[in-house]
Amino acid sequence: MDHNSLLFEHREARFRGKSAVLVTWDGFQDQEVIYPYHRLISEGYDVFITGTGNPTVAGIFGTSFPSIGSFGTFIKDHSPDLVILPGGVKALEKVRQDKDVIDFLKGYTGVIGSICHGTQLLIEADLVPLKSVGGYYSIKTDVENAGGTFEDGVTIDLPIVSTPHYKYMGAWMEEVLRVAERGLQ
Question: Given this model, what pLDDT does residue 12 score?
């Protein structure tokens, strides 16, 4: 039995058998990991969190999650169906320096959900040019300098579903799941 199945084994979930990875580091924005993590599990995803290489990662408000380890170690054995890039400026300043993450994102062909400072990874992986994306308001100029168009609210520009702020979290996750279910056509 997988590591998430006991939580929602009673539900018939539309994404059973699919996997998702939340790419983060210590110092993540707690609610931007908490909500996607539990929402994805409730939809049937097998959810993994990568981080520092330690057995746990901790948010800025103290929420701790089990971590499968570093992204480089994780990606050797896994091929996620969905990638979530949660925010947290402290976490993303570390993750954007991880060559394994950036190289993976450059070649990834699935749906990417990005919120807040998660957009820094999209910029670092050169996925923003000619795209409309949301990111935290303080990185609007970074998005524009990378050749993208900054948007407020929930923005879909395939394969990316993005939003600047957790106040849009519910609508953002609905769109991430809708796009994941429909595929990238």
Answer: 61
pLDDT tens for 88-142 read 999 999 999 999 999 999 999 999 999 999 999 999 999 999 999 999 999 999 9
pTM (two decimals):
0.93
Q: What is the CA radius of gyration of the chain?
A: 15
DSSP string, 32-70: HHHHHHHHHHHTT-EEEEE-SSSSEEEBTTS-EEE--B-
What's the number of domains the chain is made of?
1
End-to-end CA distance of the chain: 32
Distance CA 143, CA 84 (A): 18
- The rounded distance, in Å, linking the Cα atoms of 96 and 149 is 20
Residue 58 is part of which domain span? Answer: 5-182
Q: 111: domain CATH number? A: 3.40.50.880
